[in-house]
């Protein structure tokens, strides 16, 4: 993660993402909003968090935009986009953004700043165990990529 000064146009787009976050909150959802802009700074898609109204823990605006971009944009077009988002993408969304081929992300609030504003902080870690059964698990994967 790099911290850079933003341009006037980037700040305008971040302010729009923050407006979308306020709209999400006004609609009964967590306060997060995001948009995708093309290389000229033109907004091509917007989303708000809808995790509560959709009863879907994955309905983050960043994930919805990454899915849309992967489905609707060609690789070159996606790579030329920038996601502007009210908060730094969570690990789930970051993974989707990477897979979607978006060019970059500019965020207003960091994950650390967000957690400082939340009474309970971040979500608890879930213990994981593995790898196990390599010889069996590799069979359906080998030769796929």
TrEMBL record:
Segments passing through the bilayer: none
Against InterPro entries, the record matches this protein to:
CMP_dCMP_dom, Cytidine_deaminase-like
- CMP/dCMP-type deaminase domain spans which residues? 8-125
- A single Pfam family, by name? dCMP_cyt_deam_1
The superkingdom of the source organism is: Bacteria
Put simply, this protein is called: Nucleoside deaminase
Q: From which organism does this entry originate?
A: Streptosporangium jomthongense
């Amino acid at each position: 993660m790099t911290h850079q000064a933003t341009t006037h146009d980037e700040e305008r787009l971040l302010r729009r993402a923050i407006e979308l976050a306020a709209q999400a909150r006004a609609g009964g959802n967590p306060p997060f909003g995001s948009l995708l802009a093309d290389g000229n700074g033109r907004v091509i898609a917007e989303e708000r968090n809808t995790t509560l109204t959709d009863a879907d823990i994955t309905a983050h605006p960043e994930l919805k935009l990454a899915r849309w971009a992967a489905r609707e944009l060609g690789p070159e077009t996606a790579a030329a986009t920038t996601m502007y988002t009210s908060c730094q993408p969570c690990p789930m969304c970051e993974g989707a953004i990477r897979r979607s081929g978006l060019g970059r992300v500019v965020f207003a609030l960091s994950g650390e700043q967000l957690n400082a504003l939340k009474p309970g902080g971040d979500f608890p870690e879930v213990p994981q165990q593995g790898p196990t059964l390599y010889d069996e698990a590799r069979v359906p994967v080998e030769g796929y990529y």
